[in-house]
Amino acid sequence: MLFFRRWGLPFVMLGPFTLLIAIFFFVPVILITILAFTNMDSSMQWTFNGLANFKRLFHDPNLLEILNHTLVYVFFTLFINVVFALILAIITTYFIQKESVSLFIRTVWMLPRMSPPVVYVLLWLWFLDSSSYGVLNSIRSLMHLEPKAWLTTHPMLVVILANGIIGASYGMIIFSSAIKSIPQDLYQAAKVDGASIWSIIGEIIIPSLRWPIMFVTMWQLLSLLTSYEYILLLTKGGPLHESEVLSLYSFHNAFQNFEFGYGSAVALVLVVIALMFSFILWKVFGMNKMVKNSRVD
After folding, report:
1. Would the pLDDT of 297 be above 60?
2. Considering the domain boundaries, does residue 38 fall inside one?
3. Of 175 and 22, the one with more pLDDT
């Protein structure tokens, strides 16, 4: 009875949410882990085959190329997601003092995220159309340059820009909210002391955003490692695996080649990579020291 009085309300309030997390997060991970050690294919019949899928993966001739593409894609897209988002947030909160103008800019930048991915990708396809009717090639024609097939000549660059621009909107909102929470007295005191704009940004704004920067970096990192929809819609991983990343490779093996066991093995390796990167970022941001200090306080 005492247990119910103490934990009854938290259980009722958190129970449905915990159940959803278990169904949509933990159960899929368990299923993927099990399937990774099977030979399940289109017949939907499977038997355990031990480490055969992982042996095949590490002998896959495309693995090193795909891993390299994954690292390049994640690093440069994450850089845009965080740094460009921070620049947008500072511009729309510190440099532009009029709230209506800054709100308009942030709203316009959020439009791609609020629109369906297919619509967003169609805009990129129109912009990069290989014919002379594409926006970028139309500009090139004004300079008497030949049309260029951007999606086939620079597929990874296109993928990074498309994902980086839309991903920056998320960090922009987080950073903008954090900057607005900084007391105005700090800015005024710094100006009275003769601090320059760059000193205010470097010594007041950036240090105040340590937690938001950590959160956005880790969130976007995990999202980039596991997401592939924009790559699939833009380039399908081509041409010849030139824009293929590990998450898309898992999708292609599982749902295009119907090798569910092998696709699950690729996905499980991706989970391990995500955990490794999360641990590295945990150390880089000094989260263990911050947790200890918060406990002491």
Report:
1. no
2. no
3. 175
